[in-house]
Design a protein that fits this description.
It holds the Pfam family LON_substr_bdg. The protein is built from six helices and six strands. It has helices at about 40-50, 140-150, 160-165, 165-175, 180-190, 195-215; strands at about 15-20, 30-35, 55-60, 75-85, 90-110, 115-120.
């Protein structure tokens, strides 16, 4: 997965706009389509386009309670706006390409309605590697992938899956599969791509096993 944009750690912004969105996962080198229509996030994207095109995706760690903004997880992933289009009704259709994970050092004052954090990039410097090292147990992954996709009525291009690199395969499946928010957070926080591939496979195996034994409900 060659990168068109390959910054150094010191090039990344200290103060990062963030878009909290539950159940949405962005990973380094992944591509996330976003349909932006809320005024404060239109402002976020407009500002990001003027200031380096980078903003962060992060999940709320709890549901909103009252008028206060919900708390957010400590770890998110920043992406760069790699393409965007304006619609006639004022929306922005954005593709965000994952760059590097970050730790929230602290939340700082919001601007134009959107939230911002002081980002600590240092723990995730390896995310910027051109070709991260990864080991995937493909036979094990593929043995559970088909029943998992059937379970969720998902139809993916199997030929593309079989020919994808280990990194592209892991990133694409982790982002696309319908895991619970905390499961997606576990995938994000995996120590490295190999550990993420192991976690991805284990989550699929658990979902299929639960369905086969009739215990629990299918994750939506």
């Amino acid at each position: 997965m060659a990168r068109a944009f390959h910054p150094r750690l010191e090039d990344l912004p200290r103060i990062l706009p963030v878009f909290p969105l539950s159940g949405v996962l962005l990973l380094p080198q992944g591509k996330l389509p976003l349909n932006i229509f809320e005024p404060r996030y239109l402002a976020l994207v407009q500002d990001a386009l003027a200031w380096g095109r980078i903003f962060g995706m992060i999940q709320p760690s709890a549901p909103p309670s009252g008028p206060a903004e919900p708390p957010i997880f400590e770890i998110g992933c920043a992406g760069r706006i790699s393409s965007f289009d304006e619609t006639d009704d004022g929306r922005l259709l954005v593709t965000l390409t994952g760059v590097c994970r970050f730790r929230v050092a602290e939340e700082v004052e919001a601007t134009r309605g959107y939230r911002r954090v002081a980002a600590d990039w240092a723990p995730y410097a390896e995310d910027l590697a051109e070709e991260p090292q990864i080991t995937v147990d493909r036979p094990r992954l593929f043995s559970v992938l088909k029943p998992f996709l059937k379970l969720h009525s998902m139809d993916l291009n199997w030929k593309a899956i079989e020919t994808a690199s280990d990194l592209a395969l892991t990133v694409s499946l982790a982002m696309a599969c319908p895991f619970e928010p905390r499961e997606k957070q576990a995938l994000l926080e995996s120590a490295d791509p190999s550990h993420r591939a192991e976690t991805l496979t284990a989550l699929m195996e658990m979902a299929v096993a639960e369905a086969n034994t009739g215990k629990g409900t299918l994750r939506q």
